[in-house]
Amino acid sequence: MAQNQYNTLILKRIEDKFESLLPYAGIIALLSSVVILYSPIPNEFAYLDGSFGVLFFILYFLHRKVSIEIKIMITIMVPLIIGIYSFMDGGFTSACITLFAIANVIAVLLLSKPKSMMVSVVTIAFLCLLWFWSYLGEKGPSINIGFAKWIIQITTFALYLLMQHSMVYAIRIYLLEIIQDLEDSIQQTYELAYFDQLTGLPNQYEFKYNLSKWISDNHLQGTMLFLSVKNLSLINTLYGEAVGDTVLLKIAEVFGNLKRENELLARLGGNEFGFWLVGTDDIQIRIDTLISVFHEQFKVPDMFQKIEFHIGYALFNKEKGSVLETYKNGIVALTYAKTHQLPDVVHYDDSLEATIRFEESIKEQLSEAIKNDEFILVYQEKVNGITGKVLGLEALARWHNEILGDIKPDVFIPIIEKNNLAISFGEYIIDKVLQDYDQIREKYKSNLSVSINISPSQLMSDGFIDYIAGIIKKYEVNAENIILEITENVLIEGIDLACEIVDRIKKTGVKVSLDDFGTGYSSLNYLTKLRIDELKIDKSFISEIGINKMNDNILEVLVKLSKDNGLDLVVEGVETEEQLNIVIEMGCVVIQGYYFSKPEPL
User: Do residues 148 and 99 both lie within one domain?
Assistant: First the structure.
């Protein structure tokens, strides 16, 4: 805090108190004038006190028209004038110096250093003038104490003033430092409490406050947009947390540059950002443009991973709801987008609420459904595309509930994951598959391999390896006939940990397949580190085969990579003869798709 700010602060602090004291000072001055009038003291002192009493009342009634500094200067002049009058009338040297000292105390405490020094210089000048007046007129203290003593008295008074200035201003500087430290501490606490320490953006508390202020400024419409970085954990794994932090900083920078006037941006925590957009017209176009321009401007050196977002938004209309309700609705839309892994922007509406309530009902029914054995297994064949021979099966869960009806896997699987039921559900499914294996062997007259989908949380759980080894032994199934299908999401926990777990699984004899390759965080780098047995190409590649040349080139690279590394390659989603012919020509033999079979119960 600058010195002038300190002085302003002092003046503001004393102004109210000062004005409240003015009428009391006026009353005391008037009463003292009456007392002096009837005492042996000369009447001039009574008139002087009376005048000051009237002046105090005038200042009180005109307090809003007179600055506080003028009021202080008048207060300083009162003891100076009384001191001068005391000296001139009665030669009261001690009274004069005492009153002058009081005036200087007031000046040093309440005025800035230059102004208080000026008061001290004027005071000493008055003392010298009074002495000359006394000396030339041969009256007053000059006669009684002599020239030398008078010089000593003035010098002592000057030294007193100098010491007063030094001590008081040393104290003021000390207080100023304390105030500055306190302000810095308050500012630091404020920044820690209301701002993100990495990006410098407001956090959710400051964001909500700014939203409320924005609304109170009579803005009527806006859009609450939330963005969650999909693959931040993987970026931290592949490139290190320093690069992950750089990504967040760059996201904040780019969106900050794209933010329009009166719009708000915040980092809400982790990988989530909040964006308040002005207006609601053509908002989908605005969001699409925002994301498109972001990808054009976003660049982090030596990082090739594309930044992708889950996005949800809610519209605000001041006449129809509160800003906090809009905030909540935006979070609901984002959560829905994340839970369902949707590629599109999710707009909050009433139907979304109904969907969420339905999913809450599913959540309530899930635990009981596992206990009551409500899930059935269907199996989809993996076929040699040339000979038509069945090479293996993939087990898939289906659920029919008496209350909710048929619930699709893409609805109940995310809810299972989200509610920490993945381990119990996974063990339940594995148990059912191994129970079915004798029937599978009897139906196909062969020891076919059976693939079972494993969630990342189950794969990473303590005791999973021992569980697999134990249940295979329990049902006396050949471990080589069981394939555990994992997804790239396991890499979120770290490539080294994923490799370690895969290696331990393979020691039990069970095979490992990487499912849905190409839909998540594909990297040939980690693909060569994971000692998997099988690679499954996602159906999204097949849907554009023969149409997208880049897509075809990538598929050819993956076929070569699989052959070079001794991996079995399975292509999912083949539905037409044309697709079949293209993938076989590329060298993909094992096919899983509706062209050959749909998932069916045994």
Answer: yes
